[in-house]
TrEMBL record:
Family annotation (Pfam families): NAD_binding_10 (PF13460)
Domain NAD(P)-binding: from-to ranges: 7-192
InterPro entries per UniProt: NAD(P)-bd_dom, NAD(P)-bd_dom_sf
Biological source species: Ornithinibacillus caprae
Biological classification of the source: Bacteria, Bacillati, Bacillota, Bacilli, Bacillales
Database matches in CDD domains: SDR_a5
Protein name: NAD(P)H-binding protein
Amino acid sequence: MKVLVVGANGQIGKHLVSIIQDKGNMEAKAMIRNQEQAPFFEHLGAESAVVDLEGDIESIAKAAEGVDAIVFTAGSGPHTGKDKTIMVDLDGAIKTIESAKAAGVKRFVMISSFDTRRQAILDAPPSFAPYVAAKYYADEWLRSTNLDYTIIHPGGLTNDQGTGKVKTGFDLDIAEIPREDVARAIVASLENDSTIGKEFQVLNGNTPVEEAIGSI
């Protein structure tokens, strides 16, 4: 399976490309913003494509040609304004979904926010509400397609070393999870067709990732 990782230079994205490249039955194609980011992925033996997520659908679709799945891990980051939240977390996600359709790629994994239901927007602090709203509408757009989607809602992200063990479900109390374990949950979801058409929250836990995802 060849996987286009959108947002590959992000912290989850780098873990994801590394894990994919370590597997014998998968390979990653890293979609990055500029050529200066390419050496990290070249060192891993991964192909890269330089594409501006704020550009046109055609450029993203071209990067998606020949892949079997797309993972959207891009994010505007905590230190940008509402404008970047709209352009990356909302418009960038929707353009990537449309690019998957244009390129004939059915499998799509979205990395969302922990809770993107309408009430979560209303309950969020003013500074965080635009991000939750952007994720809400991006998730809704994906659900309305005929893509083989999975939506993953991770808890609070940390840079701790992954444990390889998680907790999955819905309506969970928010807790933390290492980005490395989120990446492992993505890979397990790609390998498990039972996650198609489903979404789940993922947190630190005691169940091996493959087992937890297999029970979705």
